[in-house]
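SAMPLE LOG
Freezer: B-3
Tube label: C17
Construct: single chain, 160 aa
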Amino acid sequence: MELTHFNNAGQPQMVDVSEKTATQRTATAQATITMTADTLRLIQTGGITKGDVFTVAQIAGIQAAKRTGELLPLCHPLALTGSDISFRPQENPPAIHIQATVRCVGVTGVEMEALTAVSVAALTIYDMAKSAQKDMEITDIRLVKKTGGKSGYQREGADE
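STRUCTURE (predicted):
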C-alpha cells in the first residue's frame, strides 16, 4: 500500500490533488457527550451560567469545520459550501448526540471537517457545562456517511 502523505524521500507532504475532478462532496459525523441528568437538565433549560450551550456549540462546530485545514497539518484547506450541526438530547442514559454534515464542491472530501465539527461542538458543551459537572465523557466520534469522489461510505445503522 502506497503511503500518500510521504514523498519519495520519506518526508511528510500534502497530497497533490490538482489532477482530481471537482465533485459535490458531503460527510456526516457523529459524537456523544454523556453527563448526569442534572447537567442535561441545566443545559436544556438554560441554567448554565456561560449562556446558551447549544447555540454556542453549534457556532463553534461550524467555525471548527471551516478551520480544519489550519488544525490538521496535512489536511487541505477547503471552501465549504455548507455546514449543519444538530443536537439530540437523550434522557436515559443522559447524553447529547451531536451530528454534523459538511458540504463542498471540490477535489477532496470533507470527512475531517465533519469529524472536527462534532469534536469541537462536544468540547464546547464540555467547556460550558464543566462548572456543573467535571466528569462528562465525550465518546463515539465517528464518520457515519460520505458521498462524492471515487468512493462513498455509510456506517451500518447510521442515523439519517
